[in-house]
């Protein structure tokens, strides 16, 4: 049973557009929410992470929005570039640290 | 600083065999976690080791085991391989005891079971 539900499964966006990926969770013990980016043939790499005491975190063109009451969080990629084409995973963990991953979203940015 | 390295990168085995995968964490990192990645199940946590002790375990059968050495290098073993064990096995390391610190992933070992 997937503890973190991620949508959409895939996304096509034009260069310069905004990519939005959503995740939802049920376990209220989760207190750390990272996003990972994975290119073909590579392991996932941490992109940005948030804790529930803040509602938004921005790093460059990447922003996490967090809604604690709705138990949802999302990744926004602003000004999407072809180099952003990758698979994105949301994840969540409690203080024991076992990361639970979403199913992944394949993002394709067209020139 | 060298990243997480995993060997071998690719492996082909037959059903019933066993396999050992190796992971060398980033220098100075003491926590090593293992994940299985498949198209159907996504990324699933196998286990985590810190200072040679298994600290966390996922929901995998006992055929999956691991260990960590005093230099923080880790191995995972899968015995009596099944077709469904075909997957990308990823290792991730982090600096210290707080597992919520950034985990750095290796490129993975792709295992194919025939």
Describe the protein.
The complex is a heterodimer of chains A (111) and B (114). In chain A, the strands form two sheets. In chain A, strands 2, 4, 5, 9, 10 and 11 form a six-stranded mixed sheet that branches. Chain A is globular. The model of chain A has no long low-confidence stretch (mean pLDDT 93). Chain A is 0% helix and 53% strand. With 111 residues, chain A is mainly β. In chain A, strand 9 (86-92) and strand 10 form a beta hairpin. Chain B is mainly β. In chain B, the strands form two sheets. In chain B, strands 2, 4, 5, 6, 9, 10 and 11 form a seven-stranded mixed sheet that branches. A four-stranded antiparallel sheet of chain B has the order 1-3-8-7, with no helix packed on it. The chains are: A mainly beta (111), B mainly beta (114). At the A-B interface, strand 5 and strand 10 of A face strand 5 and strand 10 of B.
Find the structural class of chain A using helix and strand composition.
mainly beta
**Backbone shape of chain A:** globular
**Structural shape of chain B:** globular
Q: Which stretches of chain A are low in confidence, meaning pLDDT under 50 for 5 or more residues running? A: none
Structural class of chain B: mainly beta
Q: Provide the β-strand percentage band of chain A.
A: over 45%
